[in-house]
Amino acid sequence: MDSRSRSKPTPEPARKPEAPPPAPLVLGVLGGIASGKSLVARLLAGEQGVLISADRLAHEVLDTPEVRTRVRERFGAGVIGSDGRVDRRALGNLVFDPERGEEARRELERWTHPLVRDRIMARWSEARAAGARRIVLDVPLLLENDADHGLARLCDVLVFVDSDDETRDRRARQERGWPAGEVARREAAQIPLTEKKQRAQHLLPNHSSLKQLEEAVADLDRRLARG
Q: Is 44 left (phi over 0), alpha (psi -120 to 50) or beta?
């Protein structure tokens, strides 16, 4: 038989490339000190979303041997606890000291902020690769440091947690042991809250009970789901 008359094998149909997972909805949480940003961020992330907390990652950075050594050498043993780890309250008091804190704070930020940014972006990449439907950024200086990290520009939605000055000052005194007026003093170096509120697309009031805050977050969830 002529080999040319033999039937040729049917080629397998070309496989369609797998579609990339849909881009996640990215929410950035804004608000003043002790306004409840971290709580709102956790509620917005829920069980299905990914929460990226800059404060938690800063804890990790301060716990690295290299940073602990540098903090001890620069600021002294007084900011190191009995367990050998950085005493964040003592360090905070030092870098926010009215007379000599600004220079120390800027130096500390030069060491730590790049390391925290790297960890934020690593979590970001992991969340996207895993197909996360929602990413929530709990980054205290989201707007202030956007020129360095660009995270605010990645957000689809900015949410402002609105809490009055008196309530926030009381929370900071009760939960953090801060003196009266410390919240306002530390916020003086940040973007005014009025500007942060104007930048946000959604506002969540946090003036009263946890239940009311949870209801406000649930309502925002429904609005976001509707697009």
A: alpha
pTM of the model: 0.86
Tokens of 117: 């940014």
Residue whose C-alpha is closest to residue 227's, from 160, 161, 156, 159: 156
Q: Please report, as a single letter, which amino acid is at residue 106.
A: R
Helices (H), the chain: 37-45, 54-62, 65-75, 88-95, 101-129, 146-149, 151-154, 165-171, 182-187, 193-199, 210-226
Q: If you average pLDDT over every residue of the chain, what do you get?
A: 90
Q: How far is residue 72's CA from residue 62's CA, in Å, rounded to a whole number?
A: 11
Q: In the predicted model, is pLDDT for residue 101 greater than 90? A: no
What are the boundaries of each domain within the chain? Answer: 24-49+133-227, 56-130
How crowded is the C-beta side of 64, counted as CA atoms within 13 Å?
12
The percent helix, strand, coil of the chain (3-state, each to 5) is: 55, 10, 35
Instruction: Name the nearest CA neighbour of 33 among 193, 143, 204, 216.
Output: 193
Query: 72: pLDDT confidence band, cut at 50, 70 and 90?
Result: very high
Beta bridge partners, 53, equal: 138
Q: Does domain 24-49+133-227 have CATH number 3.40.50.300?
A: yes
Residue among 159, 141, 165 nearest 223 (CA): 159
